[in-house]
Amino acid sequence: MKVRLALYLDNKLTGKSNIVNELSSELEKHFQPNKYGDSLDELYFGIVSMSEGFKAFFKPRKPKFTKSKKMFEYDVDFDFDRFKDTTETNLKGFILEGILESLQVISEKVKDFDINAFENDLKQLV
After folding, report:
1. What angle do the packed helices 88-102 and 17-31 form, to 10 degrees?
2. Cα 58 to Cα 126: distance, rounded to the nearest angstrom
3. Burial (0-12, 13-18, 19+ Cβ within 10 Å), 15
4. CA neighbours within 13 Å on the CB side: how many for 100?
5. Cα torsion at 104, 109, 115, 121 (round to 10°)?
6. What digits encode the pLDDT tens for the residues 8-46?
7. Which H/E stretch holds residue 100?
8. How much is the pTM?
9. What span, in angstroms and rounded, lies between the C-alpha atoms of 53 and 4?
10. Distance between CA 66 and CA 39 in Å, rounded?
């Protein structure tokens, strides 16, 4: 399964984008050999963190399941101050915890997705 992160970060957080890109590469390698059902081959998490001044211009998108491409994408909105204040050492865990808390949205849209197996595999990276 292809799992990637897309970054939608406030310009005050650009210094943390390298860590998020590293995590995206780790996720891709970790999940590449795995399959969690026949309906889904690609999963994209939008990592969103905007300051109050920019929240009005960038709202997290609704979850989207494209059956023909077997692709699911949705945004996970992180509190700007918590994201900014999280140390580089702890940022990957912070993002993974946010993703773990949001996973239910996938099983609501994709009925044959093995959410428990995916969650267990994701927890291995936390």
Report:
1. 50
2. 28
3. exposed
4. 16
5. -90
6. 999 999 889 999 999 999 999 999 999 999 999 999 999
7. helix 88-102
8. 0.92
9. 27
10. 10
